Amino acid sequence: MNRKQKRNLIRICIAAALLVIVNILRHVTDIGGTPGFVIYLCAYLVIYLVIGYDILRKAGKGIINGRPFDECFLMAFATLGAFALAIIQRSGDYNEAVAVMLFYQIGELFQSIAVGRSRRNISDLMDIRPDYANIEKDGSLVQVDPDEVEIGTVIVVQPGEKVPIDGVVVEGSSSLNTAALTGESVPRDVREGDEIISGCINLTGVLRIRTTKAFGESTVSRILELVENASSRKSRSEEFISRFARYYTPAVVFSALALAIIPPLFAGNWSMWIYRALTFLVISCPCALVISIPLSFFAGIGGASREGILVKGSNFLEMLSKTKTVVFDKTGTLTRGVFEVVAVHHAAIDEKKIIELAAHVEGYSSHPISKSIQKAFGGEIDLSRVSDVEEISGHGVMGKVDGKTVAAGNMKLMDRLGIKAHDCHSVGTIIHVAYDGSYVGHIVISDVVKPDSKAAIAALKASGVQKTVMLTGDAQGIAANVAAELGIDEYHAGLLPEDKVRMVERLLDGGNKLAFVGDGINDAPVLTRADLGIAMGAMGSDAAIEAADVVLMDDNPMKIAKAISISRKCLRIVYQNIVFALAVKFACLILGALGITNMWAAIFADVGVMVIAVLNSIRALRTRNT
Amino acid sequence: MKKTYKIDVDCANCANLMEQAAKKTAGVKDASVSFMTLKMNVEFEEGADEKRVMKDVLKACRKVEPDCDIEL
Fold it and tell me: Rounded CA gap, A351 and A356, in Å?
């Protein structure tokens, strides 16, 4: 509790105690007639002022500033009205007016504590902001504000500390906990020369890092900025509520007025109808809705960010929950985006020998295909064994390894050399290898599917996504293969980047909400064109963070289904709150109009609904088992 | 020119009122208030004196919500 809340709590206690004392006094002593009437009126008025003076003041200011329909005014009007009724009827029952004000204040206090607590919960969860950076000065470590560290400075990160600024490790090795950024619980190992992003927690060894970015441009700052600004983009449900609140309160006030005037014109009994009208006013505050809906979204966005899913606004969280079509870019999203040797066929000599020969003859090349063969070989490439290398563009490479001719390339190369090669039916890139003038087999290289892709597609289907589509620039055969393996409904191959935009536009015509998932590399136009752009594996990639609406920090496709289920849960909570709060309000309004309920019940309903709605909102924060 | 200020306010509706008041203040191009993070993002107009503008913003906010505060 902060100071203001404590002060209000004390006020509530004093007022409640006074109320009890005055009521007891009234029972034991028996001062009748006019003196008694005046004394008790004064006593109750004092308690009323103790508990409600700030409300009265705010109500007065509201009228002066031309905003007559705020909740303070309504509370003030309803309670003063109840006082006036009691005076006119000479019933002497002022308890109601004072008690309503008292409960209203208790409700406000409760709300303030609940909201404050949930706010703290959520911000704790996003507490990845580093407070300081260590730099070495004259042989000792000095803590400085990370904002003051210039690019290229060497900072020291000790075990247990957060990496404050993006950079490159210049000394030391350690494992990093990236859970706060990616939701991934397995630590990541880093050594000298590795790039490191801010926000990770250093677990084991001391690291010296040369910064490559300023603090403000570092990953951690960008993420925090993104999440904190997320709530400023309002969702349709939030807009609905603020629009609703704008009409709801005046509508209730005018119906209260009608209730106070019209029935008694025909039936008489003015004071009863006025009392019922005042009950109306107590229920007219829409605070349960106004507070719980943004809180739900805030909690949902906070919970998602803990899983490494950054949602840029409540509107995108809402969109995510309505997504019916998910379009994937293939390379880097469903597949790893790196080429790997998957097989060696028709080997006339040892398979390892074939790869060794190919790796050596391609030893000078940095082409991705060559790299993948070198990687498959695994050992050190001894370039002194290689001579007379000739690269034949569009065909492959020829050269001598250990003095004997090796040719590695496509069918055209084999034809050119007059060597008969076996055609291959596998999908992927085929490298035929000839050794010493004769064919020894071919190497199959292809982009491998991520291990989780198949499960991710299934999870999306299970969570209610109706259609999955894959777009790729690759050849038909490869695309068909991957689509079949993963269980994707529709695929389009051989697309240029602009074709992808056209394809997405055609799918958008279907009317279903469409999300496009890409790795952020040259698919920015498509990301912006889709209803919802999801960039994955975006850790450190500024362009992707800029273009996308939802950013997945790591490149695990399972996170897409996770993001959808988090958004569904959040929206479910939002709708629960809207329906629940409105149902209780309308029920109270009807019961109040019929005179079945009184002001006491009305204020209880009002405060109770609000507290339940706030507590319900907090559930959106829990994402582990969604 | 964009800046973020810490604010103190009690209810969500009051935060919305503050946002509207800030938006209408001269020198402010756009403003948004997040009740959840208790922050106000203000985008100033070209060449506006941010300190003076923020004083006006605070004054305008106090008018709609006497209990609020902006850490300047």
Answer: 9
Interface check for B36 against chain A (CB to CB < 8 A): the answer is: yes
B27 in Cβ contact with B44 (< 8 Å) = yes
Phi, psi of A159 (to 5 degrees): -55, 135
Q: Are the Cβ atoms of A112 and B63 closer than 8 angstroms?
A: no
Residue A564 pLDDT level (bands cut at 50, 70, 90):
very high
Residues recorded for chain A: 626
Decide if B72 is inside a domain: no
Which amino acid, residue A198?
A: S
Task: Give the chain A residue whose CA is nearest to the CA of B21.
Answer: A65
> Which residues of A fall below an 8 Å CB-CB distance to B?
4, 57-58, 61, 65, 67, 70-71, 108, 111-112, 115, 119, 122-123, 228-229, 231-232, 242, 245, 287, 290-291, 294-295, 298
**What's the rounded mean pLDDT across residues A420-438?**
81
A297-350 pLDDT, tens digit each: 888 888 888 888 888 888 899 999 999 999 998 877 888 777 788 888 877 788
Residues of chain A contacting B31 with CB distance shorter than 8 Å? none
C-alpha A113/C-alpha A294 separation (Å) is: 16
Cα atoms in the Cβ-side hemisphere of radius 13 Å centred on A201? 16
Task: Point out the residue among B16, B34, B66 whose CB comes nearest to the CB of A231.
Answer: B34
Query: Per the residue annotation, which of A93, A145, A189, A329 is the catalytic one?
Result: A329
Has residue A540 got a pLDDT over 60? no
The answer to whether residue A554 is catalytic is no
Contact residues on chain A for B66, CB-CB shorter than 8 A: 57-58, 61
Nearest 5°: the CA angle A214, A218, A223 is: 145
Spatial neighbors of A111 by CB under 8 A, at least 6 apart, are A287, A291, A610, A611, A614, B11
Full residue range of the structural domain in which residue A147 is found: 133-228
Whether this model's pTM surpasses 0.90: no
A374 shares a domain with A324: no
**Helical residues (DSSP H) of A418-552, grouped into ranges:** 453-462, 476-486, 497-508, 524-529, 542-547
User: What is the pLDDT of chain A when averaged over all its residues?
Assistant: 83
The per-residue pLDDT for range A371-411, each reduced to its tens digit, is 888 888 887 888 888 888 888 777 888 888 888 888 888 88
CATH number assigned to the domain comprising residue A436: 3.40.1110.10
Q: Do A231 and B12 touch (CB under 8 A)?
A: no
Confidence of residue A538 (pLDDT cuts 50, 70, 90): low
Do residues B60 and B24 lie in contact, with contact meaning Cβ atoms separated by under 8 Å? yes
Q: Are the C-beta atoms of A431 and A288 separated by less than 8 Å? A: no
Q: Is A617 exposed, middle or buried (0-12, 13-18, 19+ CB in 10 A)?
A: buried
- Count other C-beta atoms under 10 Å from residue A194's C-beta: 15
Same domain, A445 and A342: yes
- The pLDDT, as a whole number, for residue A139 is 79
**Which DSSP string do the residues of A164-216 spell out, in sequence order?**
-S-EEEEE--EEEE-HHHH---S-EEE-TT-EE-TT-EE-SS-EEEEE-S-GG
Is the ipTM beyond the 0.85 threshold? no
CA torsion angle for A534, A536, A539, A543 (degrees, to 10)?
Answer: -50
CA nearest to A560, candidates A458, A449, A447? A458
Whole-number pLDDT of residue A566: 92
* CA-based nearest distance A297→chain B, Å: 10
CATH code for position A192: 2.70.150.10
Are B36 and A298 within 8 A, CB to CB? Answer: yes
B59 found inside a domain:
yes
Residue A612 covered by a domain:
no
Q: Give me the residue label for tokens 């007219």.
A: A284
Ramachandran angles phi, psi of A374, nearest 5°: -60, -40
